[in-house]
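Tokens for TlpA family protein disulfide reductase. Go.
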Amino acid sequence: MSRVPVFWKWALTAVIVALAVAVAFWPRGGSENAGPSTEPTRAIDPELRAASGAAPCPAAPAPEQPGPLTDLALSCLADASPAYPGRLTDRPLVLNLWAYWCQPCRTELPLFQEYADRAGGEVQVVTVHSDPDEAKALALLAALNDELRAQGRTELHLPGLQDPDARVRAAAQAPTALPITVLVRPDGSIADYVARPFRDADDIAASVAGALGVTV
């Protein structure tokens, strides 16, 4: 009986191992675990943008002294127009960083709307979706508005930014966990960040007063 040369035995073994590794690491479709999305940005239905309630993003001239957020180029959730978080206002600015998969963020967003309504023109409140999947962010905002409307509560109508690479969080040197709230002075410099969920609008007001000196 002829024998297979040792060389070919090792070659066949190497091929089998390579195939096993390739199968092990082949991308699977879907996941049961909630977490940050890695899906590419998809075209957004304008009706979804409208249903989200996101307000147009304000704009102000670039500050004389550039801050860490001045040159960050993001997009506005309301209409996908370019938006610069460091040039949104010449007032104190509150940036609430969230993501569609973050349950504490979902609970917290209406509190920021309540605080913004209370603050009026004293403070600009802007949400920042810190995940690549913009469509899921808009869908969550729309679902939240449905819930709030059914409860007789004020719907969400805050300006929002799409930040797929979490550049605002990186600029603030904040931790990776969400939610995070970044408190920005009128000159564009970052006064502080809060890396925890807020209990209520009074809790937000106390943090803003302590960092930015605005009492409402």
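The first helix runs from residue 6 to 24.
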